[in-house]
Amino acid sequence: MEYLTCNHMTTQEAFYSYIVRLGDDSLILGQRLSEWCGHGPVLEEDIALTNIALDLIGQTNNLYELAVSIENKGENIDQLAFLRLEKEYENLLLVEQPNVDFGYTIVRQFFFDVYRKLVFEALCNSTDERLAGIAEKSLKETKYHLKHSSEWVIRLGDGTEESHRRVQEAVNTLWKFTDELFFQDEVDQNVIELGLGVDNSNFKATWNSHVEHVLTEATLTIPTNSWQHTGGRKGIHTEYFGYLLSEMQYMQRAYPNMEW
Amino acid sequence: MSSKEWPLWEVFIRSKQGLSHKHVGSLRAADAQMAIDNARDVYTRRSEGISIWVIESKQVTASDPDESAEFFEPSESKIYRHPTFYNVPDGISHM
User: A48 vs B29: CB contact, 8 Å cut-off?
Assistant: First the structure.
């Protein structure tokens, strides 16, 4: 097992990485959703998607604040968010996938929300009170995100012929990024042992049955192909990530230390 | 934009316990549940409310503006219907 060979990692280092990964997931998905600003299919959804984006960026803010307080590497949270190189981000590949269309955006969100709700529910019992506090606050937001994305998956899947086709295509394309939600390495092993983080293998079955339940109601089918794409937690990203970063990091790189 | 638009919904928000729901505006949504979700996002993002009602706009029956003379003007001359002849004690607010 890989984590045994890497067990020289200190708890503090592991906890830091764990928190930053949680933050990276919400930062990158928040950035993706914010691309919808002014482009939503209807005004109401434009506001809904950007509200969710802001919730996610807010979660990132809290998580990065916690990270820099755990292990001060002389960086502030803006530097953490905007000045790392591609390989230094360890977000899930799912969240960096492009918006494509509203159907893709909703399916990506749905897969993530089901997972994230389970993570935050478990993190409410973290032995670290600060993380438990962030989880409790974020859980309320995430429950709404999940309601929003689930309602849409059902309506698009069970909607018109075109909406069904598009959302099924999104499910088929994004399915290969869902195994990674349950990725574990030495970072996870360390924080699980101390009750700081969650053992995500505990809720893989719950994730599967929840997703299956909604997709079935939406008259969508779960893909049978088993090939899965991983790498995000090791900083190995898909081709879309560099473009996302260059846009997201532009301001901080063009105007170092700017605040607004 | 598709020419087939979603139905229009009227949104009512209760700002806090004890107050009644107030009409705040309208929005478009595919069905009632989505109208509630949209209303939450559009009308309560600055903590404006604790409860939302929606009703499809076509369910609202409105008075006819052409009838406003016989509907509303007769009451204008009946000032005795307004409780303006009472002295309101000091310290009573919201009157």
Answer: no
* pTM as predicted: 0.87
ipTM here = 0.72
Give the type of residue at A6: C
b/e map of A1-12 (b: 16 or more CB within 10 Å)?
A: eeeeeeeebeee
Kindly list the residues from chain B whose CB atom is less than 8 angstroms away from the CB atom of residue A48: 37-38, 41
Q: Does A48 contact B38 at a Cβ distance shorter than 8 Å?
A: yes
How many residue pairs bridge chain A and chain B with CB atoms within 8 Å of each other? Answer: 28
- Enumerate domains of chain B plus CATH numbers: 8-61 (3.10.20.520)
User: What are the helix (H) ranges across A83-126?
Assistant: 93-96, 102-123
The tokens for A107 are 């399916």
Which residues, at least 6 apart from A20, have a Cβ–Cβ distance to it below 8 Å? A63, A64, A67, A80, A90
Residue B37 and residue A151: Cβ atoms within 8 Å? yes
Given an 8 Å threshold on Cβ–Cβ distance, is A155 in contact with B40? no
* One pLDDT digit (tens) per residue for chain B, 95 residues: 456 789 999 999 999 988 999 999 999 999 999 999 999 999 998 889 999 999 999 999 999 999 888 888 888 888 878 877 788 888 888 76
